[in-house]
Design goal:
42% helix
Length: 681
């Protein structure tokens, strides 16, 4: 938003061309505003009481009116909270209260009279344009219909609309206003929706940011004594009367939202029906309408108390350890934090049943544990009552963030070095099989997705996952997902791997191996297919032990056919939480004497310097050099060229995943062309 309108008084003296662009746009659309901004009082439209055209009582009244009108239009703007800060004032008890807007200290009757006179000043053709604008974006119309007593909100609304028309495009703004069939909500016009809340004693605010404007935002708090962080969710608060109206509305609405209708259509239908009921009940206050809409959507289409947490892009995991226990989250910036949200005992059982139902599963005493995925791809595990968890029902949700991780991301986050990725690129392109291992939340799937960019562009790829997370840019790709739904035959990972092998894939990707599906995958490796997978393991030896033991039981000779293992780590580096590839290990076949797998550690991360270093000579590269007929110098040059390409890609600030995939594909077919492009840039 532009600066305060008080600054326009000085800008008018420099001519209209010195004013902000959105003000000039307004002036072009409404000549009356242009004349007012230019300070040409004598060219303002005649005041209705000025009939003579001679300087007299009518003209003096018109000039006085123009001055009063300017005071309204150029009154200083009320401060607006920005992300991470607040324009609100804190009371002695720690209560957050909204600041009052500055109305220029004008009397209510005078303001109301001036607002009416402003509309009379507009010539007929401009009045028609204003009416069209009112009908199109509904903002000014709402203010006038409700008898707004101050012209300041009217001018604020017009400026806000004009600036958004310039930055977003007129059509997008109007679609944004009308897509849900509701009047637009401007916090500067109507105030904030969130509840007035008290911060816990002994805490200070670290940051605040919007989750879903204008409904909910998060405040990050720090306990002064211990430094412990807490996540504080702020949502609108219903009055007692609004709670009664909400209940009445839902009684009318609950049978009008068909179960089989897609979520987006349900929301449109919800708004349409809600607005119809609101009109019949005589409800027109924007604050009330938006509060009702928020809770109707949250309670019936959303995920109730944790709906805002699921919408917060900074949250990765949400866990509830039991009833009457605060929910904990994993925040991308502040890590594990307690929240101000908790469920009552019966409420939590009912909510867990809802999570299972939304996932197409059934939760009961007979089936007290459910592993599933929500419609948005988030992984969820829920338990029922105290059958499994001693503290009562619980749930854990790992959100799917929807971001496509690329080799460029691995370099920028310093998870891998360009040299390591150049080595993996050459190995994967030449059909080496790779397993990514690590602990929970170490970034295994993200790394797997990034490494898949190195698969040759025309190779036939089949991926198999419990929850769809991978996003590949090769066209010859068949993604498969397991099916476990009530009332239908389940299709598990093992069956999908067997089905995939009948399709002659060149590359098989298994999202995570943890059962007998690994046997089919290793059989594929032994028959010449390339395979990629992830597995939970804290070390290479732990991964070998898991693969050789129950229930996987991979024979050691088959296990030795795996080429490369990447060990991921989530660790603290000073005060920062980082993900690093701890080591890259090669399986160099079986020792003929000991029958142990020969291990070659090729790269290792040094936490003291946060750098990666070579450890041993690569057995994989030695085999590739022999198979490709390259000299040591040629192999070294090829690795350096690939390292240059990856470094160049990482230095392109606005590059997209599809553009990265295009460059890697071009290098596969014509490396000289890509190297020339890099050299020229």
């Amino acid at each position: 938003m532009g600066g305060p309108r008080g600054s326009f008084v000085e800008e008018r003296k420099n001519g209209l061309e010195e004013t902000p662009e959105y003000v000039r746009k307004l002036a072009e659309r409404y000549p009356a505003f242009k004349k007012l901004l230019e300070g040409e009082e004598e060219t303002l439209p005649d005041h209705p009481s000025d009939k003579t055209g001679e300087r007299g009582e009518g003209e003096m009244e018109r000039e006085e009116f123009a001055q009063r009108l300017k005071r309204l239009l150029y009154a200083p703007e009320a401060p607006e909270a920005t992300e991470g800060h607040s324009s609100e004032e804190t009371s002695e008890g720690g209560e957050i209260t909204p600041s009052s807007p500055d109305t220029g200290h004008l009397e209510g009757g005078e303001i109301e009279e001036d607002a009416m006179e402003l509309k009379k000043l507009l010539p007929p053709e401009e009045g028609k344009e204003l009416r069209i604008l009112e009908e199109k974006e509904d903002l000014i119309h709402q203010e006038l219909r409700q008898g707004i007593r101050n012209l300041l909100p009217l001018s604020v609304g017009i400026e806000h609309l004009a600036e958004e028309m310039l930055t977003k495009g007129e059509e997008e703004v109007f679609l944004e206003f009308t897509s849900l069939g509701m009047p637009p909500y401007d916090m500067r016009l109507f105030g904030r929706l969130e509840e007035v809340t008290s911060l816990p004693k002994g805490y200070v605010e670290v940051e605040r940011y919007w989750i879903e404007r204008p409904f909910s935002y998060a405040i990050i708090l720090r306990e002064e004594e211990t430094g412990r962080l807490r996540y504080h969710l702020v949502e609108p608060k219903l009055t007692f009367e609004e709670q009664r109206i909400l209940q009445e509305m839902w009684e009318e609405l609950k049978n009008k939202l068909p179960y089989e209708v897609p979520q987006a259509q349900k929301e449109e239908l919800l708004v349409k029906e809600m607005m119809g009921i609101a009109r019949r009940m005589g409800i027109s206050d924007p604050k009330t309408l938006y509060r009702l809409y928020y809770f109707l959507r949250r309670e019936n289409l959303g995920f109730r108390k944790i709906d805002a947490l699921l919408k917060d892009p900074m949250i990765e995991d949400i866990s509830c350890d039991g009833p009457e226990i605060p929910i904990f989250i994993y925040h991308r910036r502040y890590y594990n934090m307690e929240t101000n949200i908790q469920f009552e005992r019966g409420e939590l059982d009912h909510f867990n049943s809802l999570l299972a139902e939304r996932s197409g599963k059934h939760l009961s005493f007979a089936e007290p544990v459910v592993d599933a995925r929500l419609p948005d791809g988030a992984r969820v595990q829920v338990t029922f009552g105290d059958e499994i968890t001693a503290r009562g029902a619980s749930f854990s949700i790992r959100k799917w963030l929807g971001k496509v991780f690329t080799p460029v991301d691995l370099i920028r986050f310093h998870t891998f070095s360009p040299e390591m990725l150049a080595y993996l690129w050459l190995a994967i392109e030449n059909r080496c099989s790779v397993m990514v291992i690590g602990g929970t939340a170490s970034g295994k799937t993200s790394t797997l997705n990034a490494l898949a960019f190195f698969i040759p562009p025309d190779a036939k790829i089949i991926s198999i996952e419990d929850t769809r997370e991978l996003s590949l840019y090769q066209k010859n790709w068949v993604p498969n997902v397991t099916r476990e739904m009530l009332g239908v035959k389940p299709i598990d990972m093992n069956e999908l791997v067997k089905i995939a092998m009948r399709q002659r894939p060149e590359c098989l990707i298994v999202g995570e191996v943890r059962g007998i599906e690994a046997q089919a995958m290793f059989q594929a490796i032994c028959t010449g297919h390339t395979a990629f997978c992830t597995m939970h393991a804290g070390s290479v030896q732990a991964a070998v032990n898991r693969l050789e033991g129950d229930p996987i039981n991979i024979p050691r000779p088959m296990l030795a056919e795996l080429d490369i293992v990447c060990l991921q780590l989530l660790t603290n580096l000073g005060s920062e939480r980082v993900r690093r590839n701890l080591q890259i290990t090669e399986f160099a076949g079986l020792d003929p004497v000991t029958e142990e797998i020969r291990i070659v550690d090729t790269f290792h991360w040094d936490p003291a310097t946060d750098t990666f270093r070579k450890v041993e000579e690569s057995w994989v590269l030695r085999e590739l050099r022999r198979n490709l007929g390259l000299t040591p110098i040629q192999l070294k040059k090829e690795l350096k060229n690939r390292e240059k390409v990856l470094t160049w890609l990482a230095n392109q600030p606005e590059i997209t995943p599809s553009e990265i995939a295009d460059v890697l594909s071009q290098y596969y077919y014509n490396p000289e062309r890509v190297l020339r492009r890099i050299g020229e840039s």
